[in-house]
Amino acid sequence: MKILAPGQIHVLIVGDYRTGTGPANVTKEYIRCLGPDAFCLKTASRAGRALELIVKIPFASVVLCSGYSAQNILAAKWAHFWKKKCVYLMHGSVEHENRINHCEDESMTRIEAETLRLSDRIYAVSGRFADWLKERYPEYQEKIGVQRNGVDKSLSFSEDVRGDRGSDGSGPYKRDLNRLLSIGGGMPRKRILRICEAVELLRKEEGLAELKLTVIGDQGADSEKIDRYEFVEDLGLVDPKKARELLSEAGLFIQNSCFETFGLAPMEALVAGCDILVSREVGALELFDTEGLSGYIIEDHEDVRELSQKIRRALGSGNRAAFQKAFIGEKASWEMRAKELLSKLKSL
């Protein structure tokens, strides 16, 4: 058993850090940045993880469950048996998001509800999400707080990549101002169907008839309707390298989500040199001082007229520079976020 110095704690981090999903990457960064103050589960199998929980929790000062998983229930119950606190880092709402996406799952809903009940603290990954949680679960208001996601230092702003060599080395990327890009596939939560409707309106205006929309992401309930628009190019799932290439060529990236607890795609678009247009629901807006950016923030993700007007305004605007100036920088680094998290865990 590790001997802890006065004021030091030992955090057991429970959660996926291997698959490359958004929550997994967050968990991975906290494991990295907390260093000797944290340890995690090493086993990939379900049975192995359960055994590790039983063995390791007695040696932890506090248990941090990062992301939705049925194993969180065992972790919380076993932590409480040993009189340890269990904290849930909540990346999204399974129940609410499944409902929006027309794929409700009673078992997942029960697991999430039990995790919320058992957790001593619930940390949301953005302030907007925390406010939503307090309204949705008033009985848990006192234990809901905020632990905002950070940003990888590799996602730093650089010069516009339009002058960089193409992926095949044959020449520079050429940014197409008639090419819009959105990520989310047919998932209704991303409201890409509303983008299609806005583009259809814009294509009737002088000078905008050549507008096209590229969609990347998995199939979903809205896919069939999205694919009916002749100006849509639906590429489905693409690898990260291809996504970066598409962002380096697009004239405007649009994220029109109706519910987005964080979401780093807009930041990745900016890093790729692309202008952006995002809905007010996107939690990653908390990475920016948004005063002065209202013209590039969609207030009503269902309002096709507003969306079309703001697409027109954002196209060719060079708003990437305004977002770069508004970026909060080092305060959003994973190193800073890990310090904030450790301080909160020590205070439990």
What is the number of helices? Answer: 13
Could you describe the largest sheet, including whether it forms a barrel?
6 strands, parallel
Query: What global shape is seen?
Result: elongated
* Percent of residues in helices: 25-40%
Which regions contain 5 or more consecutive residues with pLDDT less than 50?
159-171
Q: Would you report the number of β strands?
A: 12
Order of helices and strands: EHEHEHEHHEHEEHEHEHEHEEHHH
Mean pLDDT: 92
Quaternary assembly: single chain
Work out the strand percent. Answer: 15-25%
| N/C terminus separation | 22 Å
With strands numbered from the N-terminus, the spatial order across the biggest sheet is 2-1-3-4-5-6
**Estimated structural class:** alpha/beta
Written overview of the protein:
- Helices cover 37% and strands 16% of the residues.
- The chain has 348 residues and is of the alpha/beta class.
- A six-stranded parallel β-sheet has the order 2-1-3-4-5-6, sandwiched between helices. A six-stranded parallel β-sheet has the order 9-8-7-10-11-12, with helices on both faces.
- Helix 6 links the parallel strand 5 and strand 6.
- Helix 7 crosses helix 11.
- It is elongated.
Question: What labels would you give this structure?
Answer:
348 residues, single chain, 6-stranded parallel beta sheet, 13 helices, alpha/beta
In short:
The chain has helices at 22-34, 46-56, 71-81, 94-100, 106-118, 127-136, 192-202, 223-227, 240-249, 265-271, 304-314, 320-326, 334-346; strands at residues 11-14, 38-40, 62-66, 85-90, 121-124, 144-146, 176-183, 212-216, 232-236, 250-255, 276-279, 297-298.
